[in-house]
Amino acid sequence: MRLAATALAGALGLMGLGVASSTVAQSAEDIRIAEQLRDRALEGSGAFEIVEELTTRFGPRPAGSASEQASAQWGAELMTGMGFANVEIESFPLKLWERGETRVEILSPFAQPLVATALGGTISTPPGGIEAEAVIFETYQELLDQPEGSLTGKIVVVLQDTVPAQDGRGYGTSSPIRGQGPFEAASRGAVGYVLRSLGTHDHRFAHTGATRVGEGQIPAFAISPPDADQLRRAQRLSDEPIRMRLVSGAGFVADSHSQNVVAEVVGWEFPDQVIVIGGHLDSWDLGTGAIDDGAGIAITTAALKLIEDLPVQPRRTIRVVWWGSEEVSQPPPSQGLAGARFYADRRADDLEMHVAASESDFGADRIYSLALPAGAGDSDLRRAAMRVLTPLGILFDGAPATGGGPDTTPLVQAGVPAFRLNQQGMDYFDWHHTADDVLDRIDPEALDQNVAAWAAFLWLLANSDIDFRALRAAQ
User: What is the CATH number of the domain that holds 381?
Assistant: First the structure.
């Protein structure tokens, strides 16, 4: 049986070191143990093996599918074997969406097929598809500038590119083109919608991703970047209007369920104070969900396992969640983040005891910065964290963290403070939501650097006296 830290202080430590004192904001022992967690992860954290087994055993894991459900059961068994406490699978109802047949083609003036995929949550076309004249816009704003009724009977095509950015803000700026664009086109009379994939590469595969679902939908598709360029050239080389055919067999096909997998290392002094970390278990059906988000699951689980293996416990509880159904939209009113919403709703009366939350959901490249909640920049926690994280090539981001990742959104909206360990994302959207989201895209050493940062920072946070809510309120 592991002993509480108070029973070990001055007598037993990790590799001869002492343990954290409950009376010091950030003790030297905290820092030294965090450094050893960091160094142990760099020797081989075990994260790659987790994502390797997940993606090999279960492949794609669409929300509500048998594959997602089986991977959740496997995850619970894995975390039980790791020694985590309070392992639980919490299920919630879900509508199962399937892609079905997808086909997009130019009929005239230059007949040819285009590489395309249906957007997640979209609807089917009639069996023979939709044939109509295409109206091509270089930017999303051009579509928004069109008056009501001006696109009646047309297929809308938006060719706007996604700008690469280290922090992914180019994707964030482009996301409304996919999420809201089909409804904007439909409100102007369009019968179909096509966008240039929200990707930052020039390879000929298409990116899927969720669009809003509900009344007023029209069939919606993404085409590969080279095919978007092909459409632009076809328009330039012909005086005739471009006619296209869209075929979709997509739709919600059955009632099903998804689930969150929850486990934790319980704090010895403040077991009811919880730090929530994790990633999402579901993935799109085109690849195997290695970078989105098998990597995030592996990183946070491996980090918690390093802490579990210590001879001492953290002062606060650290909880890892494998959220279900992050990707696919749901019929109103919930739309996306079904697992995250279920987690938060189920614990609505306990969220005041959630100390902080963050998710790893930005691929598998290296972490380059740490962002803390407002008011925490001039704190012992920040100083201790940067002493430990700087050797990993991580800098402190002075801009306060406003969120901890998609699945933490309901928690943040309920007042839970968020922190971010920001990953390099310049090429994340080359592969995100595509058939190329596979294990080969992951560098094991980069994954270990992530685990090193997470394990070290979590130890410091769990043993700190910091109160993020109080610091934020003082701003």
Answer: 3.40.630.10
Residue 189 and residue 273 in one domain: no
More confident residue, 229 or 22: 229
User: Could you report how far apart the first and last alpha carbons of the chain are, in Å?
Assistant: 43
Among 215, 249, 283, the domain-final residue is 249
- Choosing from 218, 249, 280, the residue where a domain stops is 249
Q: What's the whole-number average pLDDT of the chain? A: 94
Q: Which domain holds residue 126?
A: 100-249
In which residue are the tokens 């069996």 written? 127
What is the per-residue pLDDT across 166-209, written as a single tens digit (0 to 9) for each? Answer: 999 999 999 999 999 999 999 999 999 999 999 998 899 999 99
The answer to whether 372 and 451 have CB atoms below 8 angstroms apart is no
Cβ neighbors of 191 (< 8 A, separation 6 or more) are: 130, 132, 153, 154, 155, 218
Q: What element of type H or E holds 225?
A: helix 225-237
What proportions of the chain, in percent to the nearest 5, are helix, strand and coil?
A: 35, 25, 40
Task: Say how far apart CA 14 and CA 309 lie, in whole Å.
Answer: 10
* ∠ CA 396-397-399, rounded to 5°: 145
Tens-place pLDDT, residues 392-448: 999 999 999 999 999 999 999 999 999 999 999 999 999 999 999 999 999 999 999
